[in-house]
Amino acid sequence: MQMPLPDPQILARREEILAGLRGLLPADGVISDPVALRAWECDALSAYRCPPLAVVLPRTTEEVSAVLRYLHELRVPVVPRGAGTSLAGGSMPTADAVILGVARMTAVLEVSYDDRFIRVQTGRTNLSVSAAVGEDGFFYAPDPSSQLACAIAGNIAMNSGGAHCLKYGVTTNNLLGVTLVLMDGRVVTLGGPFADSPGLDLLGVICGSEGQLGVVTEATLRILPKPEGARPVLLAFNTSAEAGGCVSAIIRAGIIPVAIEFMDAPCIRACEAFAKAGYPDCEALLIIEVEGAETEMAAQLARITAIARDFNPVEIREARSEDEARRIWLGRKSAFGAMGQMADYMCLDGTIPVTELPFVLRRIAELSEGYGLKVANVFHAGDGNMHPLILYNANDPEDLARCEALGADILRLCVEVGGCLTGEHGVGVEKRDLMEVQFAPDDLEAQMQIKDVFDPHWLLNPAKVFPLRVSQSRREKRA
Amino acid sequence: MTPQSEAELADLIAAARDPLSIRGGGTRALMLPQGPALSTRGLSGVTLYEPGALTLVVAAGTPLQEVRALLAAERQRLPFDPPDLAALSGRGGLSTIGGVAASNASGPARIQAGACRDCLIGLRFVDGRGRVVKNGGRVMKNVTGYDLVKLLAGSEGRLGVLSELSFRLQPLPQTEVTLTLEGIPAADQAAVMARALSSPWDVSGAASDPAAGRVWLRLEGFEEQTRYRSAKLRARLAPAEITLTEGAASAALWAGIRDLTPLAGAEVVIRHSARPSHMPGLLQLIARTAPAQVLSDLGGGWLSIGCSAAEAPALLCALQTEGARAGGHARLLKAPPAVATRLPGAPPTDPVVARLNAAIAAEFDPRGLFAPARLSAEA
User: Which residues of A touch B159 (CB under 8 A)?
Assistant: First the structure.
């Protein structure tokens, strides 16, 4: 993975830039000590690291605006950062960039149950948005697995999903409005707690733009009444093809569960060794969750298990108590931790049409064997969003190179069968150089024209999303 | 001009020298054509339909009725239940799926299933440079690159001509039930709908007729769900007088609300979007300004207002002023072309946002081929 060389002129002016920033923010809002900066040298894609020029931690939209206006005048690149949980390197800095973190902007600004929305500062974590309305019976639906730590700002930048988006949609479907600070410091409001806004749907293009169009400081989010109850069922199969067929049959029968999670044998065994959830030893496992009142859940689960019986299940395990439900989810929720115990891993995020599931799993197994690297699969089967985990040794550069090559092959496979490179993690630096696999030159050009409009000097998170060669002339226009 | 393929469409646009008037079924456009009509009707048919993956890919000129019939045969539907405005506009014509997407046309189901833009997962279009661009795809979770799908949905052809669309689908529910509440004063209707929508029972439609004192709430799902939920909802809304309508009768009722059938006699129809809790104040504002007939939907978040051509300017102006003050947006759904051209559009009130709109339009349509008179006021 390559990053452009830092701009020597900016590096040479570091002291001047720091002094300018200190004039705009309270003393604790600018971090420049080289030891302290190490904490910001990477995000959750920890294979790639680089300390930034400086970190600023504003507390208000006005402070964000002042900082951006200043850095815009000096043509200093800015890397926006929420909680730094990006798996795609979305908030990975460069040596000549200032990280603008919204972690100190965590206030709840407004809650309306009549109009069913909450307005928050975007440094607030995903889970604490739900917590703010939970006692009153509401929740915020998108639930990325990092929800305890990840910030709404990052959720918006990456258009985050989660396990329950089959029913509730992803971030963009639950985002009603934003306050956006443009790179030149101008502040705009897009959308709001109402259905339609005039003009083009700029809110729709801001969501998922990976911090390249502006910094979102406030967000209006849709909140929903909590369901009366939720209950999982675990279905075990001898083959991935049967599990995949079962998923399609459930959907064809008109049932939309809130979640359909899939785990394959390597993943099941690792989770079992780690979390001891009591999973059956099988080739493929589905966890399907339904919601509603007691009688409704019972009826839905009866329909689902009746369909599953056509696919030769090894075991059907219904949760008869809270504790049994917790145990069914336990293994799935500790999957990434379990993998981390065994080896370093790279987590991919391609999406495929659900009907291609058996074929893609077979091809991944062949590729895995060819490269001599183990791959475990755990993913959201209902919407085809795969998470192959490639196990490798991060201390061995050759292993990392092979892992990257295998990852690229798997993502190419996802695109070949009609899917995409990333379903919920974002492109960042990780999938940047594969974008031409999915998009023709005109498709990428059209996207870059949007960045030209919002950030003409390409200062915001510049070396991400688009292949370096493709964005080169635009980035070099900066000076 | 009726190109028969996307490539032909691209050639036509690349060669165009003067403004073009993009036409689907002609059931939604308000303005008189600005130049030669460019019809999408030659781009018709289903590219891919995978019921097991809840995915449909369809050419933009395909009639909405055909899409509905195709999906219904597999017991599926478009989740956002787009309105067919042919009857409202009084012009007849066959609404196309491209026209639906270009206007982000969505029905009462939007309150639960999202708008057209939320169910649109991919598209192809030809921009004003004659360039074919694709964005999104055919899978429902996709964050690869910028989301131009949302930008194009509802853009009313300002950036280009849609050629192909991919939608996420929904199974048709086994049953549906409508609870009709009578004798609810107009000022209380939004609060009653909010009470239902704040319940865990997945209300999939919440509309009202303020003048008639009537509120409609819809439940959909398996038979045991609608039975259980309608009993719970009835208890929550007690002591209101409630009647139940089921099956085809319920579906017909919501089709009328969706297509604004009760307002078909009005010369002009305005739709105002605002916070549902603002509905009582907005009803007073409308009553003070002009005689009008109002239908509310999305729990009070949408007010559709029928009035005479003579009263329309004052009403539109009052609503736009209120929208700028309290948050919200008024737009025309129906007006005779002669009236529509005289009425102000609704430009983004923030000049910075207006400039962003204009700059994006200039990138994709540098020659202004698709700039209608009304939208050009935004530039």
Answer: 200
A40 and A26 share one domain: yes
Cβ–Cβ below 8 Å for B356 and A195: no
| Containing structural domain, residue A62 | 8-101
Same domain, A303 and A326: yes
pLDDT tens-digit series, residues A10-40: 999 999 999 999 999 999 999 999 999 999 9
The alpha carbon of residue B194 is apart from the nearest alpha carbon of chain A, in Å, by 6
Nearest CA in chain B to A136: B198
| Distance between CA atoms of residues B334 and B282, nearest Å | 20
A307 lies in a domain?
Answer: yes
Domain membership flag for residue A376: yes
* pLDDT at B376 (0 to 100): 34
Both A307 and A351 in a single domain?
Answer: no
pLDDT tens for A345-389 read 889 999 999 889 889 999 999 999 999 999 999 888 888 999 999
The residues in B 81-100 lying below 8 A from A, measured between CB atoms, are none
- As a whole-number percent, the residues of chain A with pLDDT over 70 amount to 100
Only one residue has tokens 């390409």, namely A458
Q: Is B352 on the interface with A (CB under 8 A)?
A: yes
Say how far apart CA A352 and CA B371 lie, in whole Å: 37
Q: Mind telling me how many Å the CA of B85 is from chain A's nearest CA?
A: 18
Q: Which chain A residues are closer than 8 Å to B147 by Cβ?
A: 159, 172, 204-205, 207-209
Chain A from 232 to 291: CB within 8 A of any B CB: 248-249, 251-256
- Whether B64 and B179 have beta carbons less than 8 Å apart is answered as no
CB contact under 8 A, B146 and A208: yes
Number of domains in chain A: 5
Closest among A197, A237, A249 to A220, alpha carbons compared: A197
Q: Indicate whether A320 and A257 sit together in one domain.
A: yes
Flag whether residue B53 sits within 8 Å of chain A, measured between CB atoms: yes
User: How many angstroms separate the CA of residue B175 from the nearest CA in chain A?
Assistant: 12
Asked if residue A218 lies in contact with residue A192, where contact means CB atoms within 8 angstroms, the answer is no
A:B CB pairs within 8 Å = 254
State both tokens at B320.
């736009």
Q: How far apart are CA A256 and CA A282, in angstroms?
A: 25
Share of chain B above pLDDT 70, in %: 96
Whether B224 and chain A come into contact, CB under 8 Å, resolves to yes
Strands B214-221 and B205-209: antiparallel
Burial B314-340 (b: 16+ CB within 10 A, else e): ebbebbbebbeeebbbbbbbbbeeebb
Q: Do residues A201 and A234 share a domain? A: no
Residue A209 and residue A119 share a domain: yes
Chain segment A307-336, per-residue pLDDT in tens: 999 999 999 999 888 899 999 998 888 888
Which of B53, B118, B131 shows the shortest C-beta gap to A173? Answer: B118
Alpha-carbon distances of B66 from A169, A202, A298, B71, rounded to whole Å: 27, 31, 37, 9
pLDDT digit string (tens) for B202-240?
Answer: 999 999 999 999 999 999 999 999 999 999 999 999 988
Flag whether residue A116 sits within 8 Å of chain B, measured between CB atoms: yes
- Please give the domain boundaries of chain B with CATH numbers for all domains: 6-171 (3.30.465.10), 175-258 (3.30.70.100), 261-342 (3.30.70.260)
Instruction: Indicate the residue among A315, A335, A355 that finishes a domain.
Output: A335
Interface touch A420/B139, C-beta < 8 Å: yes
Residue A318 pairs with which residues in a beta bridge? Answer: A233
Same domain, A221 and A121: yes
pLDDT cut 90: percent of chain A above it: 84
Distance of CA A89 to the CA centre of its chain: 11
The CATH number covering residue A198 comes to 3.30.465.10
Question: Do A62 and A15 have their domain in common?
Answer: yes
Q: Which residues of B touch A182 (CB under 8 A)?
A: 352
Please answer yes or no on whether A355 and B115 come within 8 Å at the CB atom. no
